[in-house]
Amino acid sequence: MTPPIPIDVEAVTAKFETSTLTATDLLVAGIAIVAGFVLGAITRKAVARLIATVPGVRPTTGSILARLAGYVVVVFGFVIAFSALGLSFGPVITLLLMIALIAVLIGRPMLADLGAGVVLQARQPVQIGDVVQVCDGREGVVTEIDGRVVHVRTFDGWMVRMRNSQFMDDPIVSAARPDRIRVEFVIGLDYSTDLDRAVALTSDTLIGVDGVLPDPAPQVLIDEFGDSTINAKVWIWTDPITRWSVKDRAMRAVKHDLDANDIVIAFPQRVLHTAP
């Protein structure tokens, strides 16, 4: 058998007797920590209600600021607890800074998204309802901006979620809350076409197309001399959500009226010359 290890009871007792830590100190520290969490929750709710009364501040912005205020109160509770336990503020502050540094390194992407979210809420480069073109070329409507993600519903039905930091870093084409957007297409006219007559007829046709806005009025401009056609560029303004169906109706109407008036939409032709 292993002989029992002798315990110096007097030495252990003397160590506890020399300690200045009392039960009251432990009680105060515990109360400070609990009070920090309770008051932090109360502060978070109070700040959220207060910010909600400020015009122009989005709910997500208020939520972020309210959480930060709650965290400050919790940290203050821990500082009081450490002070009650007799810990000096120097080591405590050093420990908190080390914890904060580790948290920053580990959660850097999340913090970047939160910071970008605050910028998006404050500067509001885009708003809910804006039409944007995201990094992969898709276009859609911004449906939600939260603390970390921008939600975009594309026109082909997909829901794209972009991190706030990515949304800020990538070039974004935005049409802020547009009630109209320009759509264009090209008509290839035969070289024998009376251009003035073709332009006038096309302009009159476009005015009557459902969904084409009268202001700004449709424009038909001769754009270039192609290999087989004289190309006329057509500009129409319409609602951004229904622009593709409006473009379809406009092109069909133009083709119908040009055919009815014997104006040829030319197709590529190649002229061959043979040697005698």
Protein architecture, described:
The protein is α+β, with helices and mostly antiparallel strands. The protein has eight helices and eight strands; from the N terminus they run H-H-H-H-H-E-E-E-E-H-E-E-H-E-E-H. A hairpin with a 5-residue loop joins strand 1 and strand 2. Helix 7 packs across helix 8. The longest helix is centred in the N-terminal third of the chain and has 30 residues. The termini are far apart.
List the helices and strands and how they pair.
Blueprint: H1 9-18, H2 23-52, H3 59-84, H4 89-106, H5 108-123, E1 131-133, E2 139-145, E3 149-154, E4 159-163, H6 164-169, E5 173-175, E6 181-189, H7 195-207, E7 219-225, E8 230-238, H8 243-260
Antiparallel strand pairs: 1-2, 1-5, 2-3, 3-4, 6-8, 7-8
Helix pairs in contact: 2-3, 7-8
| Tally of alpha and pi helices | 8
Q: Sheet with the most strands? A: 5 strands, antiparallel
Shape: elongated
- Helicity, as a percent range: 40-55%
Average pLDDT, all residues: 77
Could you provide a short overview of the structure?
The chain is an alpha+beta fold and 276 residues long.
Q: Main attributes?
A:
8 helices; 5-stranded antiparallel β-sheet; 8 strands; alpha+beta; 276 residues
